[in-house]
Amino acid sequence: MSEGTNPIWNFEFEKDKPLQAGSLLLSEPFMWDENFRRTVILICRHHSVEGTSGVILNKPVQLELEDLLENFPKGFGGKLFLGGPVGTDMIQMVHTMGHLLTDSQKLAEGIYWGGNFDQLKKLIRQGEITSNHVRFYIGYSGWDAKQLKDEIKENSWIITQAKHEYIFNDDPDGIWRKAMADQGGIYQTMASYPENPNLN
């Protein structure tokens, strides 16, 4: 996915970082693939043989949940994102309410994936879950085991850990830069790179 290499940062910085559910993939600053340019992907499932899947956190879409989902509570105002180019006929959710939603999978502290959707709708109607507690994603991003490993070796992705503040905020455009800068060092410098390498 990456075009060209960075003479300072490379795969050696990433190779020993753990990659698991709850990790984030940050696209390298000059990625040419429009689907993933300056994206932050939350890994929801990772298996050394079956592959990896996750959702893009910073591609909001201007659609209403109640227009897409049958019997969804009107006026909820939930935030909806394009999770990736695969399975765009399905909607997934990431939330903070794992103690209330059965079948939720904990990804990191205060961050859960999936859960009982009928239960979610009931709790919304009861006022126990608000739009601050949950994010929705159309589709997902997926790789087979070898594909993602190769892309990381090709310097396409930076690996870090998910934090509540990256997901449940009102500035999706700022997630990539913040998650990059928070790692310090060379990553803080990379966070300030322009998208066009000719301007760097």
Summed up:
With 200 residues, this protein is of the alpha+beta class.
Polypeptide structure, described:
- Strand 6 (105-108) and strand 7 form a beta hairpin.
- The protein has six helices and nine strands; from the N terminus they run βββαββββαβαβααα.
- Strands 1, 2, 3, 4, 5, 6, 7, 8 and 9 form a nine-stranded mixed β-sheet that branches.
- The protein has 200 residues and is of the alpha+beta class.
- Mean pLDDT is 92; it is low at 1-6.
- The protein is globular.
- It is 20% helix and 28% strand.
- It has one domain (11-199): VC0467-like, CATH 3.40.1740.
CATH architecture: 3-Layer(aba) Sandwich
Largest sheet: 9 strands, mixed
CATH superfamily: VC0467-like
SSE arrangement, N to C: EEEHEEEEHEHEHHH
* Structural class based on helices, strands and sheet pairing: alpha+beta
Q: Unreliable runs, pLDDT <50, ≥5 residues? A: 1-6
Radius of gyration: 17 Å
Distance between the termini: 20 Å
The total number of structural domains is 1
Q: Using the coordinates shown, work out and report the CATH topology.
A: VC0467-like
CATH class: Alpha Beta
